[in-house]
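Chapter summary example.
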Amino acid sequence: MRVSMLWIPLVGALCAGAAAATSARVVTPPAFVSIKLPAPRGEFQTAPGSDLASARCLVCHSAEYVYTQPPLTKAAWTAEIKKMKNVYGATFIEDSDVEPLAEYLVGQNGKP
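The structure predicted for these 112 residues follows.
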């Protein structure tokens, strides 16, 4: 394959132009953002339903993950539990587990 002699100066000029444009640009570093998370919790807080939550939720999630979610209503927690069961395949959650899990989770991280 033969390279045309016209391409060599053209490529060199393009590279030199790009380097000059890059060096003339002032780059400011991004501002640092601080996010304060709640203290880590290795387990669910003991309350009615905590054993069930530990048995069903900790299979896939840490307690910290659940506690750092936005506070949800009971209806929203119920929908989340059903989504885990029906959409994400958490088949180990029984239909009879949904109500007590939602009660526990709204008590831990919920809003009325």
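To summarize the output: Residues 22 and 28 are 13 Å apart (CA to CA).
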